UniProtKB/TrEMBL annotation:
Recorded superkingdom: Eukaryota
Organism: Centropus bengalensis (lesser coucal)
One matching Pfam family: DUF4211
Stated name of the protein: CCD82 protein
GO CC annotation, single: nucleus
Disordered: annotated segments: 35-58, 123-144
Start and end residues of each Coiled-coil domain: 1-56
Biased composition (Basic and acidic residues): 130-144
DUF4211 domain span: 119-277
Length: 369
């Protein structure tokens, strides 16, 4: 019988064309038992009488008294934003400032629903008053100077990223301060200065080292065959000259591979501290001359430009303070004046463009074949 009903439920499409031979499953509606409305409504209605027909009169009175007391407590209880909830736990009552909800009977729901929603309904205010309140709470942005980054910085400051050029300007200002007060950078790295401007400058210095320079230096070294001795020499000397000479078929003094070496790499300058940028006068006239191949010479130029960019920038800032600084002027005023002059003349932007050019050279440098 089941198989027969299954076969009868599968039909073909009434269209007799070849393209319409598709099985169509006939869907039958589910059967529902029709129940008398009086009986169903009688079953669904809860029995409002006290369920104590087969109980003794004394016990029935106690149960009815408890039910009346419970109904009275429910009627007087209102839902508020904060209440005191008493929880019995092994005889101990714990009071917590939480919102207590209790099941309501249909009668109580109709009486207390409107009262409980009063706390959540806000009457519409006049449009003029609303716009006035919103204008007071909203930050006063000038239309011509408003940008998405400024709005993001105001509303979600932890998600706002500082622009690279802003980092660079902070570094220039820190170098100008240290050129006048040579203890500024050391106190900055030691954590002695905790004001906001000092912490921002330290963050920018770390950003320059850890995000701009160091990853690219490691990439240049990892793709080369430089020996450690050659790398240490390039790291120590802040000045370099790469001179074209007659080619010689010899081992390159950078990678020690046999090449047609036609470049002389001349390294010179004072050794300095990478943090405080304080120069060391020990063997200040020392010079190293190394003969390298074409690939190693180009890699040396790119690597050296990035490695010693920060020191060269500090040297330039020091020369500016020596020529333009005033002796009887406070340090803060001198720094602000010099910084404004450098920014207005495009000096800071030019140095930042040099840094971007060095980083692009490192990113696009072809790997040695």
């Amino acid at each position: 019988g089941k198989r027969k009903s299954l076969n009868n439920s599968v039909l073909y499409d009434s269209d007799e064309s070849e393209d319409s031979d598709v099985l169509v499953r006939k869907v039958f509606a589910k059967r529902h038992c029709i129940v008398d409305e009086d009986e169903s409504s009688r079953e669904q209605q809860p029995d409002k009488t006290c369920p104590t027909e087969n109980v003794s009169p004394n016990k029935r009175q106690k149960v009815c008294a408890k039910l009346k007391e419970l109904a009275r407590q429910r009627a007087t209880r209102t839902s508020t934003s904060s209440g005191t909830c008493e929880v019995s736990n092994g005889g101990a009552e714990i009071e917590e400032d939480v919102l207590c909800y209790s099941p309501l009977t249909p009668k109580e729901d109709s009486e207390t629903d409107s009262d409980s929603m009063k706390d959540f309904i806000v009457e519409e205010e006049d449009d003029d008053n609303t716009e006035h309140v919103e204008s007071e709470n909203r930050p006063q942005w000038k239309e011509e100077n408003t940008s998405n980054s400024e709005l993001l910085a105001y509303y979600v400051p932890q998600l706002c990223r500082c622009d690279h050029y802003v980092h660079f300007k902070r570094i220039v200002k820190a170098f100008l301060i240290n050129a006048i007060d040579d203890t500024f950078l050391s106190s900055l790295y030691d954590g002695a200065r905790q004001k906001k401007y000092a912490r921002d400058m330290l963050l920018s210095l770390h950003y320059l080292d850890d995000r701009f320079i160091q990853p690219r230096l490691e990439n240049l070294i990892s793709r080369s065959r430089w020996k450690d001795r050659y790398k240490e020499r390039v790291d120590c000397y802040p000045d370099v000259r790469i001179i074209l000479k007659n080619p010689q078929n010899m081992p390159c003094q950078a990678c020690e591979l046999k090449r047609y070496c036609k470049f002389n790499v001349q390294l010179f300058g004072k050794l300095y501290n990478s943090r405080t940028l304080e120069a060391d006068d020990f063997m200040s006239d020392d010079t190293q001359v190394l003969k390298v191949g074409m690939i190693c010479a180009e890699r040396t130029r790119i690597y050296h430009n990035l490695k010693h960019f920060k020191y060269k920038l500090y040297v330039d800032c020091s020369s500016v303070t020596e020529s333009e600084g005033a002796e009887d002027e406070p340090v803060k005023d001198t720094v602000e004046r010099l910084f404004s002059q450098l920014e207005d003349s495009g000096w800071i932007q030019k140095r930042y463009n040099d840094l971007e050019e060095y980083m692009d050279d490192a990113d696009h440098f072809q790997e040695e074949k």
